[in-house]
Amino acid sequence: MSLSARDIQLSSNSFSSKQEADIWNYLKAGDKKALSYFYTKYFNSLYNYGSKISRDAGLVEDCIQDLFVEFWNKREGLSEVSQVKYYLYKSLRRKILYKRSLLLRLPLAEVDSFEIELSHKAHYLSQQINSDIREKIKQMVNTLTAKQKEAIFLVYFEELSYEEAAVIMELKIKTVYNLIHLAIAKLRQNKGRFSPAVFSLFF
């Protein structure tokens, strides 16, 4: 039986007290409410992450919908998952990059990107910052590579471990450590000009 995007949004309150690894097994066994649980819980965070990989909001939303439809249609062959969040992030990242490569007609290695914009939750605070200073801060953060920005976002803002970030980004753990170390070193060169807390406005 196939599943449409509309079917995903079901009541999933009955899973609130269960471990996510167990709920994942319910999904594998064919429980639509288990699928709805993950969709409801993670849609916003997946969209936030996906929108940093691609600015095409429609593409990001389509990838999230496609991801959950595929989970359902291929549920019997899904892997055992202990940490669902980073499994979802890894799957979405792959799907967005693959679709971007098709749209841009470029190899996957050439479509890797990670954009930052002022977060909605920080919009009010941003009004207190001079626009010229705000632009300089943004430019400074954007001197980091796409992978450096993504590693910082996953570890410091999504609170994933280095190991989980490495799985999502399909890199070695040591590489993730190095990416973050070099990124922080670069940002600290400007610590005399801006408070480090200001950087959180852009993630």
UniProtKB/TrEMBL annotation:
<dbReference type="Pfam" id="PF08281">
    <property type="entry name" value="Sigma70_r4_2"/>
</dbReference>
<dbReference type="GO" id="GO:0006352">
    <property type="term" value="P:DNA-templated transcription initiation"/>
</dbReference>
<comment type="similarity">
    <text>Belongs to the sigma-70 factor family. ECF subfamily.</text>
</comment>
<dbReference type="GO" id="GO:0003677">
    <property type="term" value="F:DNA binding"/>
</dbReference>
<keyword id="KW-0804">Transcription</keyword>
<keyword id="KW-0805">Transcription regulation</keyword>
<protein>
    <submittedName>
        <fullName>RNA polymerase sigma factor, sigma-70 family</fullName>
    </submittedName>
</protein>
<dbReference type="InterPro" id="IPR014284">
    <property type="entry name" value="RNA_pol_sigma-70_dom"/>
</dbReference>
<keyword id="KW-0731">Sigma factor</keyword>
<dbReference type="GO" id="GO:0016987">
    <property type="term" value="F:sigma factor activity"/>
</dbReference>
<dbReference type="InterPro" id="IPR039425">
    <property type="entry name" value="RNA_pol_sigma-70-like"/>
</dbReference>
<dbReference type="InterPro" id="IPR013325">
    <property type="entry name" value="RNA_pol_sigma_r2"/>
</dbReference>
<feature type="domain" description="RNA polymerase sigma factor 70 region 4 type 2">
    <location>
        <begin position="135"/>
        <end position="187"/>
    </location>
</feature>
<dbReference type="Pfam" id="PF04542">
    <property type="entry name" value="Sigma70_r2"/>
</dbReference>
<dbReference type="InterPro" id="IPR013249">
    <property type="entry name" value="RNA_pol_sigma70_r4_t2"/>
</dbReference>
<dbReference type="InterPro" id="IPR013324">
    <property type="entry name" value="RNA_pol_sigma_r3/r4-like"/>
</dbReference>
<dbReference type="InterPro" id="IPR036388">
    <property type="entry name" value="WH-like_DNA-bd_sf"/>
</dbReference>
<dbReference type="InterPro" id="IPR007627">
    <property type="entry name" value="RNA_pol_sigma70_r2"/>
</dbReference>
<feature type="domain" description="RNA polymerase sigma-70 region 2">
    <location>
        <begin position="38"/>
        <end position="97"/>
    </location>
</feature>
